[in-house]
From TrEMBL:
Gene name of the record: qcrA
Function: Iron-sulfur subunit of the cytochrome bc1 complex, an essential component of the respiratory electron transport chain required for ATP synthesis. The bc1 complex catalyzes the oxidation of menaquinol and the reduction of cytochrome c in the respiratory chain. The bc1 complex operates through a Q-cycle mechanism that couples electron transfer to generation of the proton gradient that drives ATP synthesis.
CDD domains hit by this protein: Rieske (cd03467)
Alphabetical keyword list: 2Fe-2S, Cell membrane, Disulfide bond, Electron transport, Iron, Iron-sulfur, Membrane, Metal-binding, Oxidoreductase, Respiratory chain, Transmembrane, Transmembrane helix, Transport
Places the protein is found: Cell membrane
UniProt feature coiled coil, ranges: none
PANTHER family xrefs: CYTOCHROME B-C1 COMPLEX SUBUNIT RIESKE, MITOCHONDRIAL (PTHR10134)
UniProt family annotation: Belongs to the Rieske iron-sulfur protein family.
PROSITE patterns: RIESKE
This protein's name: Cytochrome bc1 complex Rieske iron-sulfur subunit
Location of region: Disordered: 1-52
Length: 355
């Protein structure tokens, strides 16, 4: 037993000398000997790098894809016109969406495939390694960045390959045409000044609660209260949402002594009850926040603020003009009614108007 114990250290030392030194890290054993950096793998030339004819062929293919994108974008516009949406006809909606979507999708797909094919076959494919470093906005850094962009232009051939460049520019220009046509068609078919100048309000039209359509008695409007109001005929309108977007009104009751009506509008309110358009004159958001103590109306979108005591003039925010006022009175039964329509166009001020 003694002889066996004496030989154990000798055996262990022999093993330690014959193996590389190791550091134990938990259950893993990590060798400390340095290893050699293998470097970049050998660069393999593409067929377009070897054969000029293949390079020209690839350039033609890229340009063809860009030209196809132009054709598909134009076809999308043509399909939008050739297959109009007819009211009540779901088949026309399906056809319009089908061919319009196919044209736009194929136009974008052609640009994407062309760009990928360009980078895969014609742009430089040499592998490089760059060390990470901190960037600073110095003059030298900006000059280097400009140099990199110039180098990228030369390597990509964007400035040299006029056929690819021009076809890509044409494809990008044509690709936005369907969007321009679609968004233009969403606009009003007539002069916005005419559309926004007239609403459903007219003489004798009852003010009703939104959305129930319940008529409002003047005696029910208490001091400091506010009502969201629509014209009584709105619920029977075929264009409910479009008309509501113009005719929505906010009704409030203040102390008559707090109101400072301009000349000619003294009779547009009834015993301190006033009605103003709910559509903000900035970009058309609903003005629905009423501060009872300050008598301010606040638009939640961009914080335009209107003073009800001063004919809803703008006291803060980007809105450029007061909210239009709806002249009101009461009928024989004490219900609130409109004296007329608004005397000026409602809605955002960016519409062109004949003032």
């Amino acid at each position: 037993m003694a002889d066996h114990d004496d030989e154990a250290p000798a055996t262990g030392s022999a093993v330690e000398k014959s193996e590389p030194q190791k550091i134990s890290a938990g259950t893993a054993v990590i060798p400390t000997d340095p290893f050699e950096n293998p470097g970049e793998p050998p660069h393999r030339l593409r067929i377009t790098d070897k054969d000029p004819a293949e390079e020209k062929k690839a350039a033609r293919q890229v340009s063809t894809l860009f030209f196809l994108s132009i054709i598909f974008s134009c076809l999308a516009v043509a399909a939008y016109i050739a297959f109009p949406i007819k009211e009540g006809d779901t088949g026309s909606i399906r056809l319009n969406n089908l061919f319009l979507g196919l044209g736009i999708a194929l136009g974008l797909l052609s640009i994407g495939i062309g760009a990928v094919h360009w980078s895969k076959t014609l742009m430089p494919a040499q592998e490089i390694t760059e060390m990470r470093h901190l960037t600073k906005g110095s003059d030298a850094t900006r000059a280097k960045a400009a140099e990199v962009f110039e180098l990228g232009n030369k390597e990509s051939g964007f400035g040299r390959r006029s056929l690819i460049r021009n076809s890509l520019i044409g494809a990008m220009v044509a690709f936005v045409l369907p969007g321009v046509v679609i968004f233009r068609d969403l606009g009003p078919k007539v002069d916005p000044n005419v559309v926004l100048r007239h609403t459903l309000w007219k003489k004798g039209m009852h003010l009703t609660i939104d959305p129930t359509g319940t008529r409002i008695k003047a005696s029910d409007v208490t001091l400091g209260s506010a009502f969201h109001v629509i014209p009584e005929s709105l619920l029977k309108s075929d264009d409910l949402l479009e008309e509501k977007a113009k005719a929505a009104v906010l009704l409030m009751r203040l102390n008559p002594d707090d109101l400072h009506e301009p000349k000619g509008r003294e009779n547009w309110q009834y015993n301190g009850i006033v009605a103003y358009s709910k559509i903000c004159t900035h970009v058309g958001c609903p003005v629905a926040l009423y501060e009872q103590q300050t008598h301010h109306l606040l638009c939640p979108c961009h914080q335009s603020t209107f003073d009800v005591t001063e004919n809803c003039k703008v006291i803060f925010g980007p809105a450029s003009r007061p909210l239009p006022q709806l002249p009101i009175t009461v009928d024989a039964d004490g219900y609130l009614v409109a004296q007329s329509d608004f005397h000026e166009p409602v809605g955002p001020s960016f519409w062109e108007r004949d003032r």
